[in-house]
Amino acid sequence: MTEPDKLRVNGHRLWNSIMSMAEIGPGEQGGCCRLALTDEDKRGRDLFIEWCTAIGCAIEIDDMGNIFARRAGRNNDLPPIVAGSHLDTQPHGGKFDGVYGVLAALEAVRTIHDANVETQAPVEIVVWTNEEGSRFAPAMIASGVYAGLFEKEYAWSRADSDGKTIGEELERIGYRGKHACGEHVIGALLEAHIEQGPILEANNKQIGVVQGGQGVRWYDLTMKGQDSHAGSTPMRGRQDALVACADMISRIQKLALDFAPHGVATVGEMSVRPNSRNTIPGEVFFTVDIRHPDGETLDKMAEQFSQTGKALANQHNVEIKTDEIWHNPPVEFDQQCIDAVASSAEELGYEHQPIVSGAGHDACQICRVAPTSMIFVPCADGLSHNEQESAKPADLEAGCNVLLQAMLKLAG
Amino acid sequence: MTEPDKLRVNGHRLWNSIMSMAEIGPGEQGGCCRLALTDEDKRGRDLFIEWCTAIGCAIEIDDMGNIFARRAGRNNDLPPIVAGSHLDTQPHGGKFDGVYGVLAALEAVRTIHDANVETQAPVEIVVWTNEEGSRFAPAMIASGVYAGLFEKEYAWSRADSDGKTIGEELERIGYRGKHACGEHVIGALLEAHIEQGPILEANNKQIGVVQGGQGVRWYDLTMKGQDSHAGSTPMRGRQDALVACADMISRIQKLALDFAPHGVATVGEMSVRPNSRNTIPGEVFFTVDIRHPDGETLDKMAEQFSQTGKALANQHNVEIKTDEIWHNPPVEFDQQCIDAVASSAEELGYEHQPIVSGAGHDACQICRVAPTSMIFVPCADGLSHNEQESAKPADLEAGCNVLLQAMLKLAG
């Protein structure tokens, strides 16, 4: 039997698994469209479970559809060391976001299995439901229920744009498990992920040792003016909700630039009514996403944003309605988990650096109830939520080796 | 027999006719939804024909579904004096747009009939098919075929969102007539219409003597940047197509204000891709509608608009694609027809003013092949293409009296 600290993952097998998963719900431009709880998501889950059972893992599914695949340890009374991420994607998503974390965990467990290594604590691979939040808002809802941040009934009732709910869709695809979400014990959670930002690539580092996640505030906004004929309504006196919204988008951009390089703000979603070429838009709905790693600074950005909205609505003679639909304060990861990642990267001889996650991740929810850390690897141009999202096989392999070694350290 | 210049319409009968027509395809909020060539449109047409035959008019329907209801004159070799508009509405349309023009013409002919007045030339009431363009684009298609602006085969082939064509739907509702569209001779055309703008109301005038229609240019624009993660992509280096588009909307607004009060510009339709809350938008499609009564000034606005687009795309590091999909130069109405309207308004003692039509109308198509003018009456707050569209009975009656007198002057 190979000494555990000499174990290395099979980078080709990891790569091939990622490419096989990407064939389910392929995008039009080389990426993926595998929205949460669709038929494609079901097929991705089924394939994952097939792979896990092939190496003897026991499957447990909770009533939020989260999947835990367990490889027993020597002492199964110990809480398991869990690694994983999510399999759902953005509508124009890439092959790596989430999927890498799940399949790196699978590759680590496959490597442990092949080498017949018996860990002290059990090791598990987890798949969290609806991380992206594209089909059902908010994002990271199932890890959020696990961490006690959302009520389960609230989560089940969240509907997509066709009115289908998470509860119904879990039932429909056969992934509403018997176990109550949150009751499955986690000893520690590790999540490997592409960085989705440009920092590691710019610094020529292969591994990011993630210290925590930045804070996020999400808003739904509606501006209401008055529909009117585009040809016969003079410019003066119009109540054009889209002109007001455009001004707001420019101000949000300026606000974020004032808080650069750490602050970011984005308007990602928008709909215009009546959306007719020759009618002045009477109503615009849009979303705002504001982030900063420092909680107090994030509050300051939120306050300025809210004041700007009121001032602009007044200026453009439209009504504004602002709902904060999500507030996730910054999180700090567990020092023992961070150390396990950092020392593994060091021992493996990979260039590494501490980093803060710009994106939200399931790990940022679970860290509130269990020791947690993350491992980042570079992705080309920092590009993510894009079909062109890309990562190098060598970087993915390096991150997977760090994950394997950190899991072994924590599992004993 | 009353002297023709002493004839006055029956305002109550006009109002009641408008209200009866509004019962066919009622809207949810007090307006109308009677889309072109639907069952509701057929019922509206049937009722109109019933009213016309009751006063002895002869009906002729052409192969675009345009209806001409003719009251014979003393000399039926003279080309007829025609008045009318359209009966189709926007999906959330009002009771008056188009309908007023048809039923004011009916009321004028009813008044002539009741008084046993015999005109020199025949007088006719016309209903044009699919003026709104809501169900089938482009708008004003049947008057456009009449004026030789569209081929009839092209018009017949235009499909709604379910793939049903104008040709099929004309056949289905029994309004594809035998006569070739465009062959029916028009001596002069008068169209009464609500203003759909706020000018008459603001100036406290009851009658707008329409001099012509402003020029229109329609554009489809696409801006392309790069989809990217909203949390982990720093502000610097983003290629946010929506931020670029927002800047463009503000500049278009400014451009129109620079050409106020006559110039107008509107972004009415927009779609964002991938339209996900936590993804920087990589692509935005939007439409631009620019209008001005002076052709050269409209060209200048178009030129500035095009330059602004290029400059902004460059500044925001996105690609821009601009397609001009329609260019309708300004039209000038016939002086004799304008004079007939102006002198009638003056003789009737109504406050009146010259005005240019901001919206497109069937009259703006027909004026290319026959002498034409229009009569505007105020509508509340200038509001149109809206179920709340409203007009005062006294104003509708005044416009109808002007129409009657102008028809009598032109018919002799």
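qc> The longest strand of chain B covers residues 215-224.
qc> done
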